[in-house]
Amino acid sequence: VLIQELDLEKEKRWKAEQAEKKLSESIKQLQNQAKEEKDIQSVAVYTTDRLRELILKERNAKTRLQIDIRQLKEEAEKLSKELERSKQKEEDQQKALQTLEEAL
């Protein structure tokens, strides 16, 4: 009877040890999974922050380019008007010269 009880006790202990090993293994897997998920989340947060930063830089660059384009258009318009005035002045001088030549 004592031997049977001892055998039963050994079997219970063995089953408990097996259950404990299985639980320990499950806990390790869950911890690893949680760590991986945390790492993924950290990478996602970093990537999101980096993308926001790049979008902001892109917007700033676009704004600067739009300002440059506006300034260049204004400068081109100014130079175009100046060229037109110069052409008109040259034309007027040619007419005056022609009038003087005819008068002589």
TrEMBL record:
Residues 80-104 are annotated as: Disordered. Residues 80-94 have a biased composition (Basic and acidic residues). It comes from the Eukaryota. This is Uncharacterized protein. It comes from Micrurus paraensis.
